[in-house]
Amino acid sequence: MNPEYPVYVISKGRWESRLTSKALERLRVPYSLVVEPQEFDAYAAVIDPAEILVLPFSDLGQGSILARDWVWEHAIESGAKRHWILDDNIRDFRRLHGSKRYRVGDGTTFRAAEQFVDRFENVGLAGMHYSTFAATHPTRALTKPFLLNTRLYSCILILNELPLRWRGRYNEDTDLSLRVLKAGWCTVLFYAFLADKQTTMTMKGGNTDELYQGDGRLEMARSLQRQQPDVTRISRKWGRGQHHVDYRSFRANRLRLRPDAKIPEGVDDFGMALVKRARS
Amino acid sequence: MHTGDESLLQRIGRLAIQTGVIEPDLPQELRDGMPEFHNEPGPVRTLQVHFQTEQSIEEFAGLIGQALTDRTKYVWFPPKERERAIDTEWVGEP
User: What is the value of pTM for the model shown?
Assistant: First the structure.
């Protein structure tokens, strides 16, 4: 089963690794890879050119913001209600259940996430949590399939009608999440559906070269604090700057069911079955 | 105003949620119609056991009735069957 909403992967300088692209191809999930014009040939040499969208600008030194906004407009023009926007450093996708983080073999978790958030009239952002953060805790089981009203990273489902756009140069996903929450919308971060993200700053390409050099982490934290001073503080951890965001004030944002929402009773596994994995 | 006042209780509840004193409930209907999500709790306690000699390891293995190899990092007691998630994957309908 594939997602209903369009999936975009923004990529820069990663035609060799292109982790997310490879992962989606393994799942046979249709997607569009969004690249800058000067890199089209390099990407077209390794993936189907029909899957590539070329941005009308390049090397503006503003991180991924303009590309993300371009994707948003593209999604609106397609008539879709929401769109997925994925970073290009995701190795795999998983389902957490039975205390294990199983790989998935198709796009069903995307579809299930979409159907869940579409029950509500006020979910602005949703997304899959990082697998590393969803390990079962030694003293308590993960009891909730999702976390409400927090930040989304790297694998995000955006409601196209939101009256907001990406901004800034650093921590753009945290900043967008906070603006969505402050406007009264809810966010849904799934524990049940996960993404294996390569650790930030360990891969060539992307924003690594442009933004994260020098004391980039501290500058990123300061930038977020300037944008969101009421909920952000900065500490130094392991000799580098680190931001901390307090999301507690958004716990009162409550999900509102759509009046026409039809929720089947009991479990619906969307036809998923646990099968022996085909080795690639 | 008295402590049993419904609107007061609601305000206190909202405040408790806002300040993180309590987690908001997740009604069952919000889980319905979604893939099953059930995770076993982890261990109630984990101990490090130090062995002075190789013989102690063998004795301990005999006592708990489990094999301890050079690669054993932990054991469950009583033993738990280990399922290898790496060999399987969830696949939906086409």
Answer: 0.85
* DSSP code for A140: B
Q: Is the ipTM of this complex over 0.90?
A: no
CA A86/CA A113 separation, integer angstroms: 15
Inform me whether the C-beta atom of residue B28 falls under 8 Å from chain A C-beta atoms. no
In sequence order, the β-bridge partners of residue A102 are A95
Using the Cβ of B73 and the Cβ atoms of chain A, whether some distance falls under 8 Å is answered with no
Q: Do B40 and A248 touch (CB under 8 A)?
A: no
Q: Which helix (H) or strand (E) holds A150?
A: none
pLDDT tens, residue by residue, A19-66: 999 999 999 999 999 999 999 999 999 999 999 999 999 877 777 899
Query: Are A128 and A93 spatial neighbours (Cβ–Cβ below 8 Å)?
Result: yes
Domain ranges of chain B: 45-84
Best of A29, A109, A139 to substitute, by most chain B Cβ atoms within 10 angstroms, is A139
Scanning chain A, the segments in alpha helix (DSSP H) are 19-27, 40-44, 65-77, 108-117, 172-182, 208-211, 216-227
Three-state secondary structure of chain B: CCCCCHHHHHHHHHHHHHCCCCCCCCCHHHCCCCCCCCCCCCCCCCCCCCCCCHHHHHHHHHHHCCCCCCCCCCCCCCCCCCCCHHHEEEECCC
Q: How far is A48 from chain B (nearest CA, A)?
A: 22
All structural domains of chain A, each given as residue ranges with its CATH number in brackets, are: 7-213+247-279 (3.90.550)
Q: Which residue of A has its CA nearest to B87?
A: A277
A105 in contact with B at a CB cutoff of 8 Å? yes
